[in-house]
Amino acid sequence: MDPDKRAQVRAYLEEQEIPYKIHEHPPVPTVEEALPYWKDIDAAHCKNLFFRNHKGDKHYLVILDHRRQLNIRDMEKR
What's the gap between Cα 14 and its chain centre? Predict the structure, then answer.
């Protein structure tokens, strides 16, 4: 993340008196690869899936618990 944006996010959280902790790890493409980095973090873990429609003009971010499976065809119908 851009250092200026990171500072803006931290400033906002502090202004709103929102407590936070920062946990950093390298980008990983799968939950399995992320698990070693999450082992000491007592929090909910999620996976983020980014989709776009066939035309490429609509984009969707689907966030779900890391233990859940997603039937992409079922989601596509919705």
Answer: 21
